[in-house]
Every structure is written in C-alpha cells, then in structure tokens.
Hints:
The chain is α/β, with parallel strands linked by helices and 416 residues long. Among the domains are: 6-121, Rossmann fold (3-Layer(aba) Sandwich), CATH 3.40.50; 261-410, Heat Shock Protein 90. It has helices at 25-35, 48-57, 74-83, 102-110, 123-212, 222-256, 268-278, 280-283, 303-321, 374-384, and strands at residues 2-4, 17-21, 41-45, 62-66, 92-96, 115-118, 263-267, 286-293, 298-302, 324-334, 337-344, 388-392, 399-406. The protein has a six-stranded parallel β-sheet, with helices on both faces. Strands 8-10-11-13-12 form a five-stranded mixed β-sheet, with helices on one face. It has a two-stranded antiparallel ribbon with strand order 7-9. Helix 5 (123-212) runs antiparallel to helix 6 (222-256) and helix 7 packs across helix 9 (303-321).
Amino acid sequence: MKLSSASDASTERTRPAVLAVDDVEANLVALQALLEDMDCDVVLARSGNDALRHLLRREFAVVLLDVQMPEMDGYEVAHHARRNPSTRDVPIIFLTAANNSEGMVLRGYGSGAVDFLFKPLNPSILRSKVRVFLELHAAHQKVETAKTALERSNAELQAAYTDLQTTHAQLVQSAKMASLGELVAGVAHEINNPLAFVLSHLDTVRRKLSQLEPELPAPLSESAREKWQRANERLNEIGPGLDRIRELVVKLRTFSRLDEGERKLVSIRECVESVLTILGHRLRGAIVVETDFGSPDQVDCYASLLNQALMNLISNAIDAMAGRGILRISTGAQGELYSIVVTDSGPGIPAALRERVLEPFFTTKPVGQGTGLGLSITYSIVRKHQGTIELSEPPGGGASIAIRFPINQGPTPNAS
C-alpha cells in the first residue's frame, strides 16, 4: 500500500486509489493502518475542500467520508461530488461517530452514499467493503480498456474498409483510364497508317499535276480552265485538313502515353492540348478556352497519371459551366514548384464544401451523373508527385483548382 497526503500532487495514477476524508488526524492514521496491506493507494484529505480537490485530480475506487467536519460536512461534500459529471459515480461510504439514527442514515443515502458505517469501525467489515469496491473498480477498468480497444479496432477496421473502397474505386477508375488510353492509342494507330498513305499520294498528285500543266493544250477553254483551277483549289484545301488530322493523331498518342508508365520529362503544353483534344466535343459551342503556358515547358512527372489528373480537372470545369463560359488553364514555375491552374466561370464551390470535395465518393452532381472520384483520384496523383492541391474562388467568380508539385522530383523510384 502506498500512503499519500493531501499535498502529494505526484501520486501514482496506475494503481487503484482510496480517498479517506476526516478532520481528525488520529482517524486518518487508523484508516491507514486498516488498509495498509491492500493493493491500493490511500490518499488522505483533512477537510471537505481538500477532498473535492483530490476528486478532481484523479480517479478513486471508493471514498471513505467522515460526516461531521467543520466548514463543510460530509453531506455537502457528497452533494458537490454528485453534481460534477466527472465525480458523480464515485462510490461514497459515510463514516460517523454520531448516534445511529434512521434520519442520519436516510440523509446519507439521499446525499448519494452507497453505504453507512458507524464508529468505532469494525476492521473486518471496513476492509471487506473496500475490497469489494476495489474489485469493482478493477473490473470497470478492464471493461473500459476492452471498450477502448474495441473502439480502436472498429475505427481501424472502418478506416481499412474505407481505404479498401477507395482503392477499389480508384483501381476501377484507373482501369477505365487505361482502357481509354488503349482505345485512343489503337484509334490513333489505325488512323495513322491510312493517313500516311493519303498524304503520300496527295504529294504525288500535286507533283504529277504540276508536271502535266505545261503539256496542256493552249489556250484552254473557259470551262476547262475553271475545272483545272477548282481541282487545284480542292487539293490545296485537302492539305491543311490532312495536317489537322495528323496533329490530332499526335495528340491522341500523346494522351494515351502507354509507353510512359514511369517518370520522365514531358511537355506540359502537349499534355494539356492532348486532353483538350479528347474533350474537344464538349468544348464546342459557347465555352471559350484560354491557355497561358509558362516556362519551363518540360517537367519531370508521371505522364500518364498527370494526363489523368488534367482530364479530371478540365472535365469537372466543363461540367460546372454547363456548356457556356470561359475555361482558363495556366502553367509554369513558381519558385521550386510547378503550378497548373484550371479556372472556370461556373457557379463555384461553396466554402463549406471545399474541404469535402477531395473525399472519395463525395459529389454535388445529381445521382447517376458523377462518382465523386475525380478530385480524390487527382489528389492521389498529386500526392504521388509530392505536391498539393488547392481550391479557391477567383475574383470574378467561378472555381479555381491549382495543383503544385516540386519541379525536382528527386531520384526516380525503383520499378518495383
């Protein structure tokens, strides 16, 4: 048994404790002697105020409380203890040398006592009652420990389940993006071969016509001259159209980047333009695209992942504007960070929702029109680049989303 006085502020908190309250020193010494071989700390208080201070400082298995004390008697101490949420459940055993009257006992129980003992105390009875409350306290502590462990396990299980859901959803989304990349790459390949064939024959046709022109009979009739001129005009118009298709194929292949699963230097301008090409059908109409490409253009990154992040940001911006507005994309270095900012002129994101939009499965779109994964996946991609994502409201309204990551990504991680 460890004995503690009212001034001992460093009492051990690992062992159960008994609080003995009495204004007579001899009574406290007697209580110490009775409890000296029990596995508990005995804390001594010589007044009601002293007892209440101790009750606020630590937890007690039971309080042995003298009834008759100056300034504040035991009933008042019990009353104050019961009013405080942190001490209301501490068991109190009243001790008194007064006559055993029914009124006194009823008042004691009415004050919140669990038992009432009269002096002179029977040592066996007192020790027996204290032992019961020590055992109850120990059992309660075990229950609380088990409850805390169970709550922690439940929280960990819930977190693991949430992570599993998020990972599964991200894998599904990544698989969709990979399938889109394969489809785009396949389409680009299938277009590229006949395109090269047509461009080659177009050059042949131009060359042969230029060789044939001096051999034409002169003068040509008005009708023949008009047909000749129209044929040359159509050939000249075919060239830019085929060049546009070739540029589109290059951008489609840039977007797919099936050969760029690892980090490498890529052109951010090409990344942005390839995504705009893929989403071109959604930009037709009243959406104006403004781009501002800063330096450097080439940045060390995971190209396919960055394309996916840009696709999510630009697609969300287009959704927000509902077919009409201004889409601004700016890129460039800001100190040691590279910044990509996508701004739209839509209704914006309410301040109360800005912290939630990065949560998996959170969406403000109607049911069936959004998975709530776009920004959370983008956030994961930005974290893979050791970067941050920031949502804000530009001065003119709308929404602005900036992703920033170190220009120097450090050593390339192992392929494993």
